[in-house]
Structure formats: C-alpha cells, structure tokens
Specification:
This protein is an all-alpha fold and 283 residues long. α5 packs parallel to α7. The protein is 69% helix and 3% strand. β1 (224-226) and β2 (232-234) form a beta hairpin. The protein has helices at residues 5-17, 21-34, 39-51, 55-68, 73-85, 89-106, 111-137, 139-164, 170-198, 200-203, 235-244, 264-276, and strands spanning 224-226, 232-234, 261-262.
Length: 283
C-alpha cells in the first residue's frame, strides 16, 4: 500500500526535528505529490528550504501555499524570510506586514518573531538607501565595495559547485556561505569606517536605535506609552491595535486603554534624536 500524504508529512516532521533537512524536504515533496491541495505541506517544505537556504524554491512554496490559503500566516512569514535573505527588503516588508496583520487577527503567538522580521526588513530597506547615499559621495568607495561584493559572489558560486559535486554536505555549504557573507559585511563596514574618518559629515553611517522604534508601525515613535508588561509602543498605533484586540501585541496578555502610561523618558529621547536626525522621520 502506498504511503499516505499524512504519514509522509509525519516522517518529514521527524526528519526536520532531527536536523536532516534534505530528507525532510524529500518527504514533504512526496507528500505533496499525494496531496497537492494541502497548504500546510507547502509551508512545511518552505520552512525546510529556509534551513537549506534554498530561497527561490522556498518562495515558490510560499506563493503556492498562499494561493491555496490566502490568509496563510506561515506562507507570508516564510516568504518574507526568503525575501530578506535575497536582499529584497521592499517585498519582504510587505510580506512580513501581511503576516503580522494575520497574526494579530488570529491571535497567533508569533507576533514578536514577525515584529523582529519586519524591523529587519525595514532596516535593510534603509540600509540600501543609506549605502547608496554614501556610495554616491565617493566613487572610490563605490568601486572598492563593488569589488568586495563581486568577490563574495564568486566565493558563493564556488561553494555551490562544491555542493553540486558532493564535496560538501548542505550544512557545511550553508555554514561556508554564512561565513562568506559575514566576512564581507565586516570588510564593507571597515571600509566605510575608514572613509567616514576622512569625511565624517557626509560618509558617516546613519541609523535609528532599536529602542526608538514602535513594534506595531515599525516607525520611530512620536508619543510612546508603556504597558503594564513593560513594553513601549507609539500611542496612536497601539490605540488602533486595541480597537481590534484587547491584548498586548507582543505578549498577548490582556490590555486596555486604561493600562497605558506615558513613557516620558523615551518620548524625550525620540524628540532629541529627531531634532538632530530629521531624516529619521521617513525611516
């Protein structure tokens, strides 16, 4: 008797928990062959492909899951992770925001993880703009950065070739690519630091501290309030959230308007930062 889609899914779950992601991917693929209308099978395989860093294949699975289940929180969440990995911050921000909205409506417990992903996408979106701003200031910096990025691309392709010829297993390949990415990031940061020393007014990197960012709108806060659980949000966005759900967006504990208190110290910090960094209004 042929193995059922459910049984294959359960076997895939066991392989995933054991860290055998390639085997899990194969088992989920077999399950999909038997039940191609089940969105959970596609999100399971998408998550596995995230572990394998198979980003394009992950995106394909997420899109199929969303087609089958338009309110698939996992579909949008995993899609955003793959888009961030491929350096598509605009698309990632849209996908992650959709996942967050679904999460709030369904009272899912993943709100804090998705919040972190939205902030990551927004940071990367700003990073792209900031990188171009700095690069436009210096042709030499742009040329040197491009050289570092091209070298990293070549190194990653070499890893792919070694994987293709079975000289590396998927875990080793993933770790080597992560090392290449991190080493390149450090070199680029060191390069920018050197150039910033020579022209601090124009080449110093600008960023918004995490503690000034609202965890609902993911913009810099204007009128922060603190909840009884100690989390701070912008008043306006939190009040809008409370119209939909009387819970803390991150902890999911009960919360009402009466529980909110002004966070005066944080409000002062936001005001002072904006006074010196007007660009952050559009962050």
């Amino acid at each position: 008797m042929a193995t059922s889609a459910f049984a294959l899914k359960e076997q895939g779950n066991k392989a995933f928990k054991a860290g055998d992601y390639k085997e899990a991917e194969d088992l989920y693929s077999k399950a999909i062959q038997r039940d191609s209308a089940n969105p959970a099978l596609f999100t399971n395989r998408a998550f596995t492909r995230i572990k394998l860093q198979a980003w394009d294949a992950c995106i394909d699975d997420c899109i199929r899951a969303i087609e089958l289940q338009p309110q698939s929180m996992k579909g949008y969440y995993y899609l955003a992770q793959a888009q961030v990995a491929l350096h598509h911050p605009n698309e990632a921000l849209s996908s992650a925001t959709t996942a967050y909205d679904i999460c709030l409506r369904t009272h899912d417990s993943s709100a804090s993880n998705i919040s972190a992903l939205i902030l990551q996408a927004k940071k990367e979106k700003w990073e792209v703009k900031e990188r171009e701003r700095i690069r436009r200031r210096s042709d030499l910096l742009r040329e040197l950065e491009d050289g570092l990025l091209r070298t990293a691309d070549v190194q990653r392709l070499q890893v792919d070739q070694r994987l293709k010829h079975l000289e590396l297993d998927p875990t080793e390949g993933r770790e080597e690519k992560e090392e290449i990415t991190e080493a390149t990031r450090r070199k680029v940061e060191e390069l920018r630091t050197l150039f910033a020393v020579s022209d601090p007014e124009n080449l110093t990197r600008r960023e918004v501290p995490d503690y000034l960012i609202d965890n609902i709108s993911f913009a810099i806060m204007h009128d922060p309030v603190v909840t009884k659980t100690g989390n701070s949000y912008d008043r306006s966005t939190l009040l809008e959230h409370l119209k939909r759900s009387n819970t803390d967006p991150l902890t999911r504990e009960p919360l009402t308007r009466e529980d909110l208190r002004p966070n005066l110290a944080l409000k002062q910090a936001c005001a002072e930062f904006l006074e010196e960094n007007g660009w952050a209004v559009d962050w």
